[in-house]
Structure formats: C-alpha cells, structure tokens
Amino acid sequence: MEKRIINPWTWQEQLSYVQAVEVKNAESTLYISGQAAVHTDGKSSNADMRTQLGLAIQNLETVISEAGYECSNIVRLAIYTTSSDEFINSCFDLFQDFVRKHGIKSALTLLQVVGLNETLNVEIESTVVK
C-alpha cells in the first residue's frame, strides 16, 4: 500500500491533520462506525467530554487492532461533538496526543451536532487502510 499526503499549505500541521491522503495499491479498507464513550457492558458514559473522548479513542484503537489494522494507517477521521468549542478548548490536546502516538496523517472533519445517542457528547468515525 502506498500513501501520499497532499498539503498545499503548512498551517494544518499544527491542527494534526492533512488536506488529503491518496491511497494506491491498498490490500483492504476498514470503515469504522462512530466510536464513542460506551463501556464494554454497552452502557454510555455520562462523564465530561474529555473523559468521553479518552474512552472513544480507546474503543477506536480496540476495533482497529481487533480487525488486524494499525492506527498509523488511519486515512480519514470525522469527529462529531455536541460542542465544537468545548472540544477545541478542553479536548484538542488529547486528540493531538492520539495522533502523535500513532503518527497519524489523516484527512479530518470536526462537526458540531445537535445531539448524540443517550448521554454521549463525542464520537469518532474512521477509515483505515492496509
């Protein structure tokens, strides 16, 4: 598999994403449903957004690993949040730590939504290749 990063500018680097990722000769692609702060017993977290983001990231890492893929090959992320201001001001560093930890270079969209399931306030959707 070959990945090529397309970044006509440099400003997005401080925001931990790239403008585009071209993938050639991929063996397979994994499309992951939105991962949120849902515990192993299926109960949604009612914790603050930062704590929920940490659990959502752990769940995403688990799904990727169980499928036999690597987080470093995430090529697309969509983050849904009930408050983009809260996400940027209290959670963005945690997201950036996740990106740095795995050396992720992905296209990214952050979307504010009216609501998520039950008590959830952040969800991460992903596409991974190998």
UniProtKB/TrEMBL annotation:
Transmembrane segments: none
SUPFAM superfamilies: YjgF-like
InterPro entries listed in its UniProt record: RutC-like_sf, YjgF/YER057c/UK114
Pfam annotation, one family: Ribonuc_L-PSP
Gene3D superfamilies reported for this sequence: RutC-like (3.30.1330.40)
CDD domains from the UniProt entry: YjgF_YER057c_UK114_family
PANTHER family: BLR7761 PROTEIN, YJGH FAMILY PROTEIN
Name listed for the protein in its UniProt record: RidA family protein
Species name: Pedobacter psychroterrae
